[in-house]
Design goal:
single chain, 54% helix, alpha+beta, two-stranded antiparallel sheet, 2 strands, 4 helices
Amino acid sequence: MPSERDVTLSAARDRNVLQRLAPDPLASDRASPVALRPEPSVPVLVSGVRLLLPERVLRAAASRLQTATGGYVALEDYAEAVALTLSALKTDGLVEVLRP
C-alpha cells in the first residue's frame, strides 16, 4: 500500500504534467490569429441556381475518373457534368436546390 508521501508526490507529479500540457493563457495574447482563407471553388449553374462547388472535391473526383478511364478531364468540364447531374436529380425530385 502506498504511503501518504508517495500519494502526495504522485499527485504533484500529475499536476505538473497537466500544467505542462495546458495551453499558456497568455499565449493567445501574443499569437496572431490565423486568417481564414475561403476555399477555392468553381461556379456552376444547377437549374438556374449558381452554386460554388469546392475545387478540391472536384479535383479529387475528376482524378478518380481520369484514373478509371485513362483520359484527361478538364476541371471545368467535370464541374459542368456534376452540375448537369445535379440538375437532372432536381428535375426527378431526388435533390432540392435552394436559392441563397
